[in-house]
């Protein structure tokens, strides 16, 4: 046991607990009252440390950690835990502001959860607790500026990350779409598996009749060229739009929740197919975030600042070609100093709610000073999303090499305006990997979709979805425009107009709330 006393701040058991351990921290505030902090950490993969600086407690969760932890600020104590259920209690309250962040923006706001008073501390972040006043002040920040792992060979860095994680596993599975990110992981994993004598499998999901079949064809050619077994799993409509009952569940809503049950089945079937006990699962999510997959006018600000007007005009023309819009429109967006803000309006939310939200947040979201800030925001979002996924699977090591520290460091050294030209995004990434792999898939910009199978599921489950939404949180709190939701449910379920993203967010939100309600209710009666 280690004990540190500083400024009437007392910490016990500062050493990392190797197994489950309840650690109490006690501090004295200026009013003379004691405040208690508790933390509960469950595994050795949480890179966790504390520092005391003047009247502040700084808690860091390292980027290489495989777990997020959560912090709840109560009136008389702060609790942080690697298990969200540990701090939610039996009757957690939804924070309506955070709920609307997801409905309008597609994310709760990275470092918040949807639960009132509960924040998330994902890998690569720190939380500061200031106890210099009577009221405890808690703030969370990302540690991107502390990531300094310079490298000159991106492919070698990715392969090294895979090799490091593969050492503790007895096989490798790539979640393989045939696009840039998963193809990169496929080539690197193939080399690692050959050197370390590991079994390897590429697994793809698809749906007959959807354009995802193009992904299957691309993926099959690459797997065949490398001699890697490639399996395809058809998406089962019965596994979509389902309330989840497992113990490990997402800490925040996302549209992927509509797909969660099938995703779990997909991973389990892949493990059974490879026939190993504890495989490494490689997922390319985050590569588009780290290397800025969707060029915007934000990137032009550095172009003008660093290289002058002529270069600015050159990159503006390239951006207009890439986006297939007029040069005048690009220049106009740049001069307005903002990007499109239509995404904060969700047609399924009552107009009065939209107006109030837009008035409050229009200058906070979607307006970043430059491309570097926008990229940092995107990286932070990927770190949160990947951490959320890592926490949910126990019979495998789920790894996201493209958001590892060396890769992030490499990407952030590239000026944002060098990441695109008139035809390609993530340009430097593509060129570096192509030099090693020489595969046309590296320059493939588009991938297929599986909208059709989701529409089949909507049709089969339309009454179930009505019941979910009509008795859900958004309608109960007079946020949802039920008529518009019903209209889209009818049209989308019979194959008209696809499935709008905003519509999916409504269903995903209610699935998330329902799943957590069930989980908390079950825990109440244990």
Automatic annotation (TrEMBL):
Its EC number is 6.3.5.4. Residues 176-488 form the Asparagine synthetase domain. GO terms for biological process: asparagine biosynthetic process. Pfam families: Asn_synthase. It catalyses: L-aspartate + L-glutamine + ATP + H2O = L-asparagine + L-glutamate + AMP + diphosphate + H(+). Pathway: Amino-acid biosynthesis; L-asparagine biosynthesis; L-asparagine from L-aspartate (L-Gln route): step 1/1. It comes from the Bacteria. GO terms for molecular function: asparagine synthase (glutamine-hydrolyzing) activity. PANTHER family: ASPARAGINE SYNTHETASE (PTHR43284:SF1), ASPARAGINE SYNTHETASE (GLUTAMINE-HYDROLYZING) (PTHR43284). This is asparagine synthase (glutamine-hydrolyzing). It comes from Glaciimonas immobilis.
């Amino acid at each position: 046991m280690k004990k540190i006393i500083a400024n009437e701040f007392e910490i016990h058991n500062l050493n990392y607990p190797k197994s489950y351990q309840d650690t109490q921290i006690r501090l004295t505030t200026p009013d003379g009252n004691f405040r208690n902090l508790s933390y509960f950490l469950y595994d050795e993969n949480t890179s966790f440390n504390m520092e005391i600086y003047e009247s502040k407690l700084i808690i860091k969760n390292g980027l290489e950690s495989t777990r997020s932890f959560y912090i709840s600020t109560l009136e008389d104590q702060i609790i942080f835990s690697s298990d969200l259920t540990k701090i939610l209690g039996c009757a957690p309250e939804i924070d309506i502001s955070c709920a609307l962040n997801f409905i309008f923006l597609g994310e709760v706001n990275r470092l918040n959860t949807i639960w009132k008073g509960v924040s998330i501390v994902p890998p690569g972040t720190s939380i500061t607790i200031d106890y210099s006043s009577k009221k405890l002040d808690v703030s969370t920040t990302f540690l991107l500026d502390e990531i300094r792992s310079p490298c000159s060979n991106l492919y070698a860095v990715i392969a090294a990350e895979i090799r490091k994680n593969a050492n503790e596993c007895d096989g490798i599975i790539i979640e393989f779409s045939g696009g840039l990110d998963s193809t990169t992981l496929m080539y690197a994993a193939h080399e690692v598996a050959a050197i370390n004598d590991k079994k390897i499998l590429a697994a793809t999901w698809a749906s007959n009749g959807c354009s995802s079949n193009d992904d299957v064809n691309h993926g099959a050619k690459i797997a065949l060229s490398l001699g890697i077994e490639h399996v395809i799993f058809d998406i089962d409509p019965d596994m979509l739009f389902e309330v989840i009952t497992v113990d490990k569940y997402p800490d925040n809503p996302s549209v992927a929740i509509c797909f969660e049950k099938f995703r779990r089945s997909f991973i389990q079937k892949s493990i059974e197919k490879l026939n190993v006990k504890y495989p490494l699962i490689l997922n390319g999510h985050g590569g588009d975030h780290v290397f800025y997959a969707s060029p915007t006018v934000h990137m032009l600000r550095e172009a003008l600042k660093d290289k002058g007007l002529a270069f600015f005009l050159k990159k503006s023309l390239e951006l207009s070609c890439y986006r297939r819009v007029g040069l005048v429109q690009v220049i106009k967006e740049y001069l307005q100093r903002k990007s499109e803000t239509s995404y904060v309006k969700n047609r399924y939310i009552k107009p009065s709610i939209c107006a109030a939200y837009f008035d409050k947040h229009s200058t906070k979201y979607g307006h970043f000073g430059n491309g570097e800030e926008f990229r940092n925001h995107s990286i932070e979002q990927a770190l949160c999303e990947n951490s959320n996924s890592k926490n949910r699977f126990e019979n495998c090591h789920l790894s996201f090499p493209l958001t590892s520290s060396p890769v992030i460091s490499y990407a952030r050294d590239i000026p944002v305006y060098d990441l695109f030209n008139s035809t390609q995004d993530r340009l430097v990434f593509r060129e570096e990997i192509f030099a090693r792999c020489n595969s046309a898939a590296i320059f493939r910009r588009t991938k297929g979709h599986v909208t059709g199978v989701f529409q089949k599921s909507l049709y089969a489950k339309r009454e179930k979805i009505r019941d979910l939404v009509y008795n859900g949180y958004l309608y109960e709190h007079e946020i949802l425009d039920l008529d518009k939701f019903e209209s889209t449910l009818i049209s989308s379920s019979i194959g008209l107009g696809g499935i709008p993203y905003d519509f999916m967010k409504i269903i995903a939100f209610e699935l998330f709330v329902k799943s957590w309600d069930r989980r908390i209710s079950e825990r109440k009666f244990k």
